[in-house]
Specification:
Elements lengths: L7 E4 L3 H13 L5 E4 L28 H19 L16 H16 L9 H7 L14
Parallel strand pairs: 1-2
Length: 145
């Protein structure tokens, strides 16, 4: 197919480019779409090295576009997988402070996550051990309390 004869040209055959092309094909079934990829195969760079995590948006600045898109993308992808019987592991994330400074940072992350409407929960050391038995949880000594 010649690029001059196309209605849409998508640059990149990673997850975003392929998803865009798929949606264009569904919305405009009679249009010609070409995907241009510099590599020998699809998903060769970032998409092919994806950790497989569906991020919740806990680290992004509240009310930022990153936080908004992360939350919307999480909901969209989760619903898409459920609708299409694609298995996803909903394992969550356990953030564990190892010292006093990181404990303060944990509360900042928790606050930011709540502002971004991410589903989060603070757990005590007992609950953390139930989630991951090998976890080493920072705790103030009885003399510091």
């Amino acid at each position: 197919m010649n690029i001059e004869n196309c209605d849409f040209v998508v640059i990149g055959a990673g997850i975003t480019g392929l998803f865009l092309a798929k949606n264009l094909a569904e919305k405009y079934p009679n249009k010609k779409i070409i995907i241009i990829e510099k590599e020998k195969d699809v998903g060769y760079h970032t998409s092919g090295r994806n950790s497989g995590v569906i991020h919740a948006g806990i680290y992004y600045k509240p009310n930022s576009l990153k936080a908004k898109f992360c939350k919307e993308g999480n909901e969209f992808l989760t619903n898409y997988c459920l609708k299409n019987n694609i298995h996803i592991n909903k394992v969550g994330k356990l953030i564990v402070p190892t010292n006093e400074k990181e404990l303060e940072k944990l509360y900042e992350i928790y606050d930011r996550a709540n502002k971004n409407q991410a589903v989060v929960k603070l757990v005590d050391s007992y609950e953390a051990k139930q989630i991951e038995p090998k976890v080493k949880v920072f705790q103030k000594s009885s003399m510091e309390s």
